[in-house]
Specification:
By secondary structure, the protein is mostly helical. It contains 13 helices and two strands; from the N terminus they run αββαααααααααααα.
Length: 323
């Protein structure tokens, strides 16, 4: 009897079972879609448009492609060189003063007194204020006619021969070529105001780092005869040095990009003695309405920022490997 054509062959267990297809769960993508669209609208698109504007110039007939002319005009201008010098002076004073004061205050708060919580709360009051508001407050303190400190500043006994007007006093004659050192009184006052504004957050970072230092190491150094300063110099600072370096990078980034304090406190003056790079960018873009050159300067600042961010990430990775 012949085998039926429809009968299954020997060794064949039947039709093969097809594997079920994986269903892609699109719910997470839909959930992050609104945030992605907002990020594209306020970050990616402006960045790309800045690149386009940096190689164009506004004419009566419309935008004209000029290549790298905006960058060349910027690099050849004296305003850029002066603002770089003012930025360097501001960053050195601002970051150095803030880091030093924050370290001292963090050491005091690390002693864990009963009122440490109250002190930390009071310390964070400057951090609540916006840069513009803090700048206005500091400006009101030194106004010549009715400022709270004007009576002391304009007293010839304290500041001979005719007193000191912080917001209008000319800068001293530079010691080295055209480099703006010593800085003008307005620049010194701007550094003090910006340091006061950034002090709380910097202190919190250093305080958190100090609390990771083992008390056994500190006690061992004291038993060996180390003084308080020697303990801080040879034990405390080396142990929290990565945090201090990262904090220094953060202060530098904030100092380069911050414009609110300069805008509301000094307005870049007197003259151009407090015109830092961020305020020069504002002046070119929104005062002179030269958006092509402003975009070119924004790209230069972006390169500086990316360099600082890369340095911060590198130090953070080294810190994680050594931990």
């Amino acid at each position: 009897m012949e085998q039926s054509a429809t009968a299954p062959r020997a060794g064949n267990s039947g039709p093969k079972k097809t594997k079920p297809r994986r269903r892609v769960n699109l719910l997470p993508f839909w959930l992050i879609m609104p945030a992605t669209l907002v990020l594209l609208a306020i970050q990616v698109y402006p960045a790309l448009y800045t690149v386009v504007l940096s190689v164009q110039e506004r004419q009566r007939a419309g935008w004209e492609f000029v290549g790298l002319r905006n960058f060349q005009i910027l690099l050849d201008s004296t305003a850029l060189g002066e603002s770089v010098g003012h930025t360097v002076i501001f960053l050195v004073g601002y970051a150095g003063l803030t880091l030093t004061m924050a370290f001292v205050i963090a050491l005091l708060l690390n002693r864990k007194s009963r009122l440490s919580g109250v002190y930390i709360t009071l310390l964070f009051i400057p951090w609540i204020l916006a840069d513009l508001i803090a700048g206005v407050v500091f400006r009101l303190l030194v106004l010549p006619d009715y400022g709270l400190l004007s009576g002391v500043l304009q007293n010839p006994a304290f500041f001979p021969p005719t007193g000191l007007s912080v917001l209008t006093a000319d800068a001293p004659r530079p010691w080295i070529g055209s480099f703006p050192f010593p800085p003008s009184p307005a620049m010194v006052y701007l550094i003090l105001a910006a340091s006061w504004r950034a002090l709380p957050f910097t202190t919190l970072l250093l305080l958190a780092a100090l609390q990771t230092v083992s008390n056994e190491v500190i006690e061992s150094s004291r038993i060996d005869g180390a003084s308080g300063w020697q303990t801080i110099r040879h034990i405390t600072i080396p142990l929290i040095l990565p945090t201090m370096v990262v904090t220094l990078f953060n202060l530098t980034l904030g100092g380069i990009n911050g414009v609110g304090m300069v805008f509301s406190l000094t307005g870049g003056g007197p003259g151009s003695s407090t015109t830092v790079l961020s305020y020069l960018l504002y002046s070119i873009g929104w005062v002179s309405l030269d958006f092509g050159r402003a975009a070119a300067l924004a790209l230069i600042l972006a390169v500086v920022n990316l360099t600082l961010i890369a340095g911060t990430l590198r130090i953070t990775r080294v810190q994680q490997r050594s931990a």
